[in-house]
Amino acid sequence: MQKFKHIMRELQGAIVVGSVFQTVLGYSGLMSLLIRLINPVVVAPTVAAVGLAYFSFAFPQAGNCVEISIPLILLILIFTLYLRRLSLFGNRLFLIYAVPLSVVIVWTYAFFLTAGGAYNYKGCNSNVPSSNILTDGCRKHATIMKHCRTDVSSAWRTAAWVRVPYPSQWGSPTFHFKTSFIMVIASLVASVDSIGSYHATSLLVNLKPPTPGIVSRGIGMEGLTSILAGLWGTGTGSVTLTQNIHTLDITRMASRKALQLGAALLILFSFVGKVGALLASIPLALAASVLCFTWALIVALGLSTLQYTQTRSSRNIIIVGFTLFISLTIPAYFQQYEPNSILILPSYLLPYGAASSGPVHTNSEGFNFALNALLSLNMVVALFVAFILDNTVPGSKQERGVYIWSDRSTLDFDSASLEPYSLPAKVRPLFRWARWVG
Fold this sequence. Notes:
Blueprint: H1 2-27, H2 30-34, H3 40-52, H4 55-62, H5 66-82, H6 93-96, H7 98-115, H8 136-148, H9 155-158, H10 177-204, H11 212-232, H12 243-251, H13 256-270, H14 273-279, H15 284-304, H16 314-334, H17 365-374, H18 378-392, H19 397-400
Helix pairs in contact: 1-10, 1-11, 3-10, 3-15, 3-16, 3-18, 4-15, 5-7, 5-15, 10-17, 16-18
């Protein structure tokens, strides 16, 4: 538990530093300048790399319990592809609720398998860590039990019905250069992801593209909310979720009131400890199977940004193709080094911790760790390679797909067309100091 708290405190500090950087980037107006250099040829491989980064985690974890993972993947594909046009009560339920409906079905199936003793092995207990298992026979089944059973977590027995989250619940955040530097770059990558999401969303809801000021305001707000997430010790920042673009496309609904209601429900559920405990009963293989779909969706949504460019251009083909390949192979080289220090990353990012003993060696240990870790992150490599190539290789605006909001000639919008981007009347006075970003 002490090691966990140490990890969370350092992670909290890194998130706060990265979020402060993102807030300054947005509300200072610097993002308005940077956005002129970030075009679809940069956004597409960067967002795609976010999804591709975890290919080594998804099915390798799901494959440990194929009787759960395969049915889930097949159900999601059947619902989203083969039954997508089938309507019930006037709604395409199988398309809109493909993921939650599939999860509930397979989750229930996994529960009955667990309750029926399908994963009971003589002398084995799923709550005993693999490192403490002595018998070879039990160790053989430990992986299956961990990935298939719905009662691996003891959260349901130990979680309180009501729990109020509070700042610094793991202790005061600690700040270290190496982790903070990594999170600053990660926040920059998240901002690039958000830029593509803002533009794609504006097209889906038939709005004028957001101006550079409005985009900067959005990035600044993401930074502010991520600071709160860091202080509360969530372990992650709060940024635009790319998969929501797919949700908008399916539901054709972009109501602020619906989002506010959803946010209120999530806040309410966060006080009920048993809700988190129930989610903790989802088998690891089932969760990994869902990621096989959602991360693949991120890859597709990222590459779809290329529709705003001349996709047949050899310039763009070479830049995007080379960026995607190099963003996979360079991190693979760095991740082969074994860690020689205490890891500070979540379990699904443990491969990147191997960079603590990577090939970069200078007189600064903190700089070595930061650079080795950054070069082991696929999305970071993709961003820098695509950014440099797209802004140095000659190409016309049409060929590069220069964003509409980056072109000064298209920024003369009437105020009425930008009204949907306005802040709510009660919130607007709080941001009068940031008028220069819309």
